[in-house]
Amino acid sequence: MTRPPTAAQRRLIEAADPVTGRLKGTQAQLAALVKRGLAFRHPRPPHDHFLTPAGHRIRKGEETPEAPAPQETGKTSAPENTSSDSGVFSARVGGEKETYDRSARMREVRSAWQGLLELRRMTNPDGATDRPCGWERTHLVRAAALALEAAGQQPEGPDTDGYRVRATPQPEAVAVYGPDGAALRAYVTALERAGWQTGEHTEPRTRIRYLLASPRRV
């Protein structure tokens, strides 16, 4: 788990604009928040700094900084435990132990999704919130999993059926598995509403059906 922000950094976070998350501080202070994943530098002039979803959660007193991402190498790799009892938020990609309060988890997911929509608005060149942003394109597995969970879909657990999101060798594409065809169709709806494009495929050797999902660009 990453270290919590310092008292000075927390003051900057708490002083951020409550709507946009715009930050004020010295370049060194802002760069330190960026390094921790709590802020980002807007790519367009005047290159202001804004809170990331993780930064917004800290400002609201909901979460501590996000833990390192689950391993995204190969569709069969086991993800890390991302349950809420660890004190951090991370999208559930399927296969984790379900040791969290479901109602609290849904509040965290809604907060994370709203933060991601704000990140889209601030970083997409046209301010669009209906398609993925740059952060999602560099965190494909977590971004797709968050879109699914925010739409009410359940991840696969030790004793439950649900989705599994795994990395693929293809650029900007993840594989999404489900327990049956009906589930895959529901995942298509959830992902496309979140700005992803999908296609259904079959593994040649196992004949398992899965979705190939990519962030939509237009």
UniProtKB/TrEMBL annotation:
Residues 74-87 have a biased composition (Polar residues). Residues 94-103 have a biased composition (Basic and acidic residues). Residues 1-23, 40-103 are annotated as: Disordered. This is Uncharacterized protein. It comes from Streptomyces thermoalcalitolerans.
